[in-house]
């Protein structure tokens, strides 16, 4: 049992670390190439979807069964376009107009909206921990946006709007596919979601061209882009795999190191600077997720999903 626990801890810490590193790598890509968010996200979703589904197929998973059920594949397409693509697009654009740390922290506000939504649906008053989580999240968001002074908003209007869309996107991403995941498994739904999202973005992004993409990349930027895609896929597999050895509560708590890793890498590698109140805001948001994770031991069977950053 101790060996299994060690394996689980190693998997979730490694997965969260890779997620945390990938955000700054995406930011570096935009700073050092002419790569557009649309083109990057198109390649990322398509490759990640193909890699995930291929791995599942090679392990004899039934990846095509869902397409025999119209009600399920209609839900899957909605998830791929609005959930997977919507959340990823807002996240990448937030990095593009602000920075990786801001995008990750807005992403971490998702569980707060989910808590509020569930409380409204069940018509039950939130627990003390949930109330503390909401207060911590709102305080953290305030400090993140204003750096402690409402007269000097740190983030641009566009960054705030995209950040809030990131929060909404990840909320929808988590809530919408719950029934599909119960029926077909997390990996199958996420794999198809990424592929469908990539195909939808190609249809929307008429200017996408492999030739133009290759011209906008150097050996270094191409290497980083491939590293982001591969590390993101591996981190997702590690996260899902850790649930075999650890509880959902433990994985949720340990995944909170992601924004810390993102902040450290951004400061050391990208020379990003953050105000003291912004850093405090980040800690408040992480604390909010921690508050939500603590009382969930009685609900370990709930679906826990995680999207690649």
UniProtKB/TrEMBL annotation:
Its main location: membrane. The chain crosses the membrane at residues 7-29, 41-60, 72-91, 97-119, 131-150, 156-175, 187-205, 217-240, 252-270, 276-294. It holds the Pfam family EamA. Residues 7-145, 158-293 form the EamA domain. InterPro entries: AA-Vitamin_Transporters, EamA_dom, EmrE-like. It is a multi-pass membrane protein. Keywords: Cell membrane, Membrane, Transmembrane, Transmembrane helix. It is found in: Cell membrane. Belongs to the EamA transporter family. This is DMT family transporter. It comes from Lysinibacillus xylanilyticus.
